[in-house]
């Protein structure tokens, strides 16, 4: 989730040009007041290509923010696959469709052998909602353990396990939070033991631990020997209590964390050495079409399928699958996970160099093209949310799209489309330096 | 939901051709065991156009089942709009997008004035899930009243208010069921009064009444003076208890019930004289792309938006909106709601004539192109689910796609794409007669 101060608010209206004002007025008249626009100075794009987005006036923006168009904006192969299928047939999964089967085979093959069964849904929220339904039914328990600033989605059930939503949208009585696997991880293990005991004492039992394997809303944690040991200990405790382990790959999955010869996996849970029972996937899966899924151990889904009727009308339709297949093929044919590993490492190096000379930046971190860097007050060294917001706004004026995230909304979140080039990285660093200078 | 006996089961495998067997084997190896295929003899389609679907061998099927491709399979205008937008730009609602605004304006204008605010989501389940979240927050209550065989979706929250799912997937403690508005409606009113009292006594209070305005899984109820009076009385009782009224238009909406000069509305709730606080829409909205929505009274969404952060990544994206806009335009340019009214009336007449001469059929009913007819045992006059299943299978062999629905899965459910022609209606009736003859 991004910081509230990087949204448009009514007091920004006076400074806007006439067209933007008119569009905002029309938008506000018909859309729910819950809709938010990025930036005090909102942007209207009319075209995209690769890592670039273009306004009506032809201004080019570099996209350092959008993770959904994973193979690049409006990728011609994905667009062609969608166009061809939409003009031919779009039904549902209750008729035979070889395209669905082909895609499912390729996808499942990219997971560890025990995770052998795919269920398609439309959104990450639906994927996590279904994962919890399966876990609760399989275990007979209903307690869920999440990290302390986790975000897993927006259905009623999933909002109730998403502390980052905060406010009135409070956690369920059967949700418990634990600190993320930072440092030596002892805090997370201790928290998990307490959470398990509390859930058991309350009669909820432990249905599942669910973790975003990029720990994005908890401040970005790259896989390390310490995260491996910590997560292994927590997963073992959860399993000993009869619970299941769910890896939420909706954001980190499909190669965003980069792939190298030694670490070729597309999935964050593999990098963390986690051995989940259920894995949810989504956002980049079809480069922008609403496609998400649940990859699971077969016995869990067999038991669920025997007792529960589940049919998702729009999931796994030929057009959705055509988009997902094309995205998968481009991802591999263009070697984007490997590219993300290489260019991400270079960008992390540039960020480290920049951080060394700038007291406002601290602790650049992450993996592949999922990076974060804290914005701090140079005097106190504490997270500086207003400065992060000013940087996001300053970068928007420099035609760079980025956001702030993390507990304090004071970490810059770097997660561009994967074709992000070395030149793109240099342009981003140059403009970030400029925006830092502007801050004074 | 369709009757379990119209699905493929392993014992049907031996009778299948080699290709179908091979596809099923591959499918079962990678997809969740919960996936179901229609028919003992599953069908593989490779192309669609209008109301027809075609197999690899060029066999033509008449589609009397699929409500999602509302303007016809693979409609060229919808396909072209999707293709154009996918090749140009697909982002999200946090940037300005005039296409989204245009569409929202047109859609909201087609609702009564008080229902003035749109929120887009991806699936009918998400729409109903959000509607309940809004209702629960607005009222401070959590009790929900549904009809006794209702189906509203598959998230954890919505499965808990969907009695038609049955089995272990049981209703929540805060769900109460009422009979649908049949006959003089007194049963529904009495049930609602009891449900309200019970929810209040249990401390849940009444958050909402939610009704599918086609009452499809409750056996199809066309709008009538009796349904108007009954629903008005139930809605008044719910409001007196502090609850809201939600119309689920996911299936009946967008003109399926037909439009005439006297009854021009696209929405079932208008036809039933209901005055809802929240309306959910979905299935046909984008002719097959995952698009759904919630149309609501603005004060409800303003209060919700102030207290809850809600962002749906894939909802209202330019490609989804392009598909929804094109579907909306075709629906109007081709006069499909009016066509559905006219051809639906003719088809209902043909069904009545057929029913008069066939003791196995009873009570043809419905509105527009959303019709049902009961299949009964000629000896007892009771619902005959095996005969309904045999008819569905017999019609599949005659290249007609249809299903059985209702409480006993003994009602034929007729809900074709809206371009269904008079000739299509005659072909369907001819084949239905043949399938009835085959039954003996």
TrEMBL record, chains A, B:
Annotated protein name in UniProt: 4-aminobutyrate aminotransferase-like enzyme
InterPro entries linked to this entry: Aminotrans_3, PyrdxlP-dep_Trfase, PyrdxlP-dep_Trfase_major, PyrdxlP-dep_Trfase_small
Alphabetized UniProt keyword annotations: Aminotransferase, Pyridoxal phosphate, Transferase
UniProt family annotation: Belongs to the class-III pyridoxal-phosphate-dependent aminotransferase family.
PANTHER family: ALANINE--GLYOXYLATE AMINOTRANSFERASE 2-LIKE, PTHR45688
Domain of life: Bacteria
Annotated GO MF terms: pyridoxal phosphate binding; transaminase activity
């Amino acid at each position: 989730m991004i910081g509230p101060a990087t949204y448009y608010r009514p007091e920004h209206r006076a400074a806007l040009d006439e067209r933007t004002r008119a569009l905002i007025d029309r938008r506000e008249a018909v859309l729910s007041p819950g809709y938010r626009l990025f930036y005090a100075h909102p942007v209207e794009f009319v075209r995209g290509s690769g890592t670039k987005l273009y306004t009506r006036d032809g201004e080019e923006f570099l996209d350092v923010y959008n993770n959904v168009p994973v193979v690049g904006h409006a990728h011609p192969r994905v667009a062609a696959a969608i166009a061809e299928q939409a003009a031919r047939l779009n039904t549902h999964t209750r008729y035979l469709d070889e395209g669905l089967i082909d895609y499912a085979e390729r996808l499942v093959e990219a997971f560890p052998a025990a995770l052998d069964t795919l269920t398609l849904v439309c959104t990450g929220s639906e994927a996590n909602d279904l994962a919890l339904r399966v876990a609760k039914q399989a275990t007979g328990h209903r307690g869920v353990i999440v990290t302390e600033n986790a975000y897993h989605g927006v259905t009623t059930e999933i909002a109730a396990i998403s502390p980052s939503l905060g406010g009135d949208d409070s956690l369920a009585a059967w949700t418990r939070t634990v600190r993320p696997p930072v440092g030596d991880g002892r805090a997370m293990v201790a928290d998990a033991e307490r959470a398990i005991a509390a859930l058991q004492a309350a009669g909820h039992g432990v249905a599942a631990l669910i973790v975003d394997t990029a720990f994005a809303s908890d401040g970005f944690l790259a896989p390390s020997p310490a995260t491996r040991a910590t997560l292994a200990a927590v997963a073992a405790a959860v399993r000993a209590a009869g619970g299941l382990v769910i890896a939420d790959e909706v954001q980190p999955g499909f190669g965003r964390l980069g792939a190298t010869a030694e670490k070729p996996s597309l999935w964050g849970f593999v990098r963390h050495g986690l051995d989940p029972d259920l894995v949810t996937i989504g956002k980049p899966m079809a480069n922008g079409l609403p496609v998400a899924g649940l990859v699971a151990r077969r016995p869990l889904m067999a038991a669920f399928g025997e007792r529960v009727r589940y049919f998702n009308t729009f999931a796994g339709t030929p057009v959705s699958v055509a988009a997902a297949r094309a995205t998968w093929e481009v991802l591999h044919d263009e070697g984007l996970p490997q590219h993300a590993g290489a260019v991400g490492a270079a960008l992390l190096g540039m960020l480290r160099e920049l951080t060394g000379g700038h007291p406002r930046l601290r602790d650049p971190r992450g993996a592949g093209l999922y990076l974060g860097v804290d914005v701090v007050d140079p005097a106190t060294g504490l997270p500086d949310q207003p400065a992060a917001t000013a940087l996001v706004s300053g970068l928007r004026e420099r035609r760079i799209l980025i956001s702030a995230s993390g507990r304090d909304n004071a970490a810059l979140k770097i997660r561009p489309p994967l074709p992000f080039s070395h030149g793109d990285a240099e342009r981003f660093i140059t403009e970030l330096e400029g925006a830092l200078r502007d801050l004074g």
